[in-house]
UniProtKB/TrEMBL annotation:
The lineage of its organism: Eukaryota, Viridiplantae, Streptophyta, Embryophyta, Tracheophyta. SUPFAM superfamilies: PA domain, Transferrin receptor-like dimerisation domain, Zn-dependent exopeptidases. It is an enzyme of class 3 (hydrolase). Belongs to the peptidase M28 family. M28B subfamily. GO terms for molecular function: metal ion binding; metallocarboxypeptidase activity. Its cofactor is Zn(2+). This is glutamate carboxypeptidase II. It comes from Noccaea caerulescens (Alpine penny-cress). InterPro entries: PA_dom_sf, PA_domain, Peptidase_M28, Peptidase_M28B, TFR-like_dimer_dom, TFR-like_dimer_dom_sf. Residues 305-492 form the Peptidase M28 domain.
């Protein structure tokens, strides 16, 4: 873009803020977006440094990465400190997988190794492929294919006593293992199918996963340290025994291993001969027999969250929190350190703003989490330790994880932040087409500017939204990428395929940083609960369309949403004519606390840690986001049990959500009844 066009863009941004922003600091926000404040080279250097070595949680290399983040925060004049926890982590001690193709055939022992490509001197430090928190043990049985391992993929499949082979791509791997166990399987291997992750050429010639590539990851179905469910893993704390952890129900009940596409093809050929290119494989069982053995080591390891703080000038007790995790299963160029580089870029720009005289109205907290890959542990322990402070003081949480893996902007959020995200996207040029803004490219894309929701457990926003009820955002460029959680997710992959010029990293810092600035600086919080009510109305209408019968009445839910809509319209009118600091503070508190009202102290049935009754993970896919998850769980249960009592529980869950939404309406109105 030419200098004249850049200048015109900045002038337009200033004009926009002067007309529409309630912030007294539009000049600083425009500066934050200016080319003089951004630095592609420093972003690339941050990422190269962070991804030099594999840095799984609990390792010396990850401690080095933590020190680098803290040093960077300090160089940007942030008050920084490290919060440590001692948590239960697992590492592999022994792995083996042996295939006997038929009774007369010679057994095949798989190496279970990813091929080293290039001359990375630290490739030998990559942890052997395994599943975090996998159950130790031996499993032997005929092979059964279960597609993506979803509940519906086991219908008509005889998995009893079998070792299931399933492919990644649709649901959380921990739910694949859980679904296989419920179907009677004794073990599971999960592979990266070339139909989902492969191409004619593979890395390093192209972006696609090499045949030997393996997606590792956790199979634990809970959040946080398994030995401290609901409380922080501080020194001297209460801990559950190994037996109690297993009985809690979130740990896998059968052994599992991740394997490569190449190894999976050998196994599948024993079932069907030449592996077909179509979407359906025969299910088995056999004739091939698999013998799987895994032994893991459980240790109490130290993890480190690095925290940087810019104290607010007018409202230091209100927190706008930005977060990203640092630990990676291997090198982590996309997941998560593209996000870490973005976080550091934002910190650097905020330092430049302060040197120009800017001070935030509210406190900005930058958090670099540890041990996310195992079970969102660093953020969850911190949220559990600071629960009451966050419940009374947190304005919003802004998350960035896999910040960049390719082109195309995506955002997910709690709905009161939808309009703010769109406004920010209108102020930043598309890094892949500088003739238009990110917003213009976004609405013209396949997802047409659709904002996702944060009910799933995919990243560190989960504890903030689902446990405390803090409004939240998650943003990224790209999406799913072929080398996810493999040793090929390194700086070379990013430099060649993910973001060669690092302009997407810079753009992500601009959008996320601008959202943070507006939340930190605007006198009246830029929340719009009309968007929230409209979103809930769609979800309630979808529920009504199911025509559940059995006397189920959705009208209490629809009535409560209409009340929320009315209250949201009312506070929007109030926001226009606020006078006086105390009145402004009171309105802001109502806007901030309405999300908290959607939580319930008892939480979801049989999943009490999850307090949010509107957004939470699907019971059968931790990555899947559900509206009204308690209602959804009850419906699944009633369809299975087919009893009057189970359908009565569905109605009870509808009433629970209705009451929570009504509470949010009362908070927005700010009046006692």
């Amino acid at each position: 873009m030419s200098k004249s066009k850049a200048l015109a863009f900045i002038i337009a941004a200033l004009a926009y803020y002067s007309l529409f922003s309630s912030s007294p600091k539009p000049h600083y926000h425009a500066l934050f977006l200016s080319s003089s404040f951004s630095d592609n080279a420093s972003v690339a250097l941050h990422l190269r440094t962070l991804t030099r070595r594999p840095h799984v949680a609990g390792s010396a290399a990850n401690a080095e990465a933590a020190a680098y983040v803290r040093s960077s925060f300090s160089s940007f004049a942030l008050k920084s400190h490290v919060v440590t926890y001692h948590v239960s982590l697992t590492y592999p001690l022994h792995r083996s997988l042996v295939l006997t193709p038929s009774e007369s055939a010679k057994p095949i022992t798989f190496a279970l190794e990813q091929e080293q490509i290039g001359d990375n001197p630290y490739a030998n430090e990559v942890t052997p492929t395994f599943h975090g928190y996998a159950k130790s043990g031996n499993a032997s049985g005929p092979v059964v294919y279960a597609n993506y391992g979803r509940v519906e993929d086991f219908v008509g499949v005889n998995a009893s006593g079998a070792v299931v082979i399933a492919r990644y791509g649709k649901i959380f791997r921990g739910d694949i293992v859980k679904n296989a166990y419920r179907a009677g399987a004794v073990g599971v291997v999960i592979y990266t199918d070339k139909r989902d992750y492969g191409g004619d050429e593979c890395f390093p010639a192209s972006k696609w996963m090499p045949p030997s590539g393996v997606q590792v990851g956790t199979v634990y179905n809970g959040l946080g340290d398994p030995t401290t469910p609901g409380w922080a893993s501080v020194d001297g704390c209460e801990r559950l025994s190994d037996e109690a952890v297993e009985l809690a129900g979130d740990s896998p009940q059968i052994p599992s291993l991740p394997i490569s596409a190449a190894d999976a093809e050998v196994i599948l050929k024993t079932m069907v001969g030449d592996v077909a290119d179509g979407d359906v494989y025969p299910a088995g069982p056999g004739p091939g027999m698999l013998n799987l053995s895994y032994i893991g080591e459980t240790v109490i390891a130290e993890i480190e969250n690095v925290i940087g703080v810019i104290e607010g000038e007018e409202e230091p007790d209100r927190y706008v929190i930005l977060g990203n995790h640092r630990d990676a299963w291997t090198f982590g160029a996309v997941d998560p350190n593209s996000g870490t580089a973005v976080l550091l870029e934002i910190a650097q720009r905020l330092d430049k703003l302060r040197k120009r005289g800017w001070k935030p109205r509210r406190t900005i907290v930058l958090c670099n989490w540890d041990a996310e890959e195992y079970a969102l542990i660093g953020s969850t322990e911190w949220v559990e330790e600071n629960r009451e402070m966050l419940a009374s003081r947190a304005v919003a949480y802004l998350n960035v994880d896999c910040a960049v893996s390719g082109p195309g902007f995506h955002a997910s959020a709690t709905p009161q932040l939808d309009e703010l995200i769109k406004q920010a996207a209108k102020e930043v040029l598309d890094p892949d087409n500088t003739t238009q803004t990110i917003y213009e490219s976004w609405i013209g894309s396949n997802n047409s500017g659709v904002i996702g929701r944060l009910g799933g457990g995919g990243s560190d926003y989960a504890s903030f939204v689902q446990h405390v009820g803090v409004p939240a955002v998650n943003m990224l460029f790209g999406g799913g990428y072929p080398v996810y959680h493999s040793m090929y997710d390194d700086f070379t992959w990013m430099e060649n395929f993910g973001d060669p010029m690092f302009q997407r990293h810079v753009a992500m810092a601009s959008v996320l940083g601008l959202v943070a600035l507006r939340l930190a600086d605007e006198q009246v919080l830029p929340f719009n609960y009309v968007s929230y009510a409209s979103e809930l109305k769609k979800s309630a209408e979808d529920l009504e369309k199911e025509q559940l019968g059995h006397g189920i009445d959705v009208s209490p839910l629809i009535k409560s949403i209409q009340d929320l809509y009315t209250a949201a319209q009312g506070i929007n009118i109030e926001k226009e004519g606020i006078k006086g600091a105390l009145r402004m503070r009171e309105v802001n508190d109502r806007l901030m606390m309405a999300e908290r009202a959607l939580t319930d102290r008892d939480g979801l049935s049989e999943r009490s840690w999850y307090k949010h009754l509107v957004y939470g993970p699907s019971k059968y896919d931790d990555y899947g986001s559900k509206s009204f998850p308690g209602v959804d769980d009850a419906i699944d249960n009633a369809k299975r049990l087919k009893t009057k009592e189970s359908w009565g529980h569905v109605q009870h869950q509808i009433w629970r959500v209705s009451r929570a939404i009504r509470h949010a309406s009362l908070v927005l109105k700010g009046e006692l009844r």
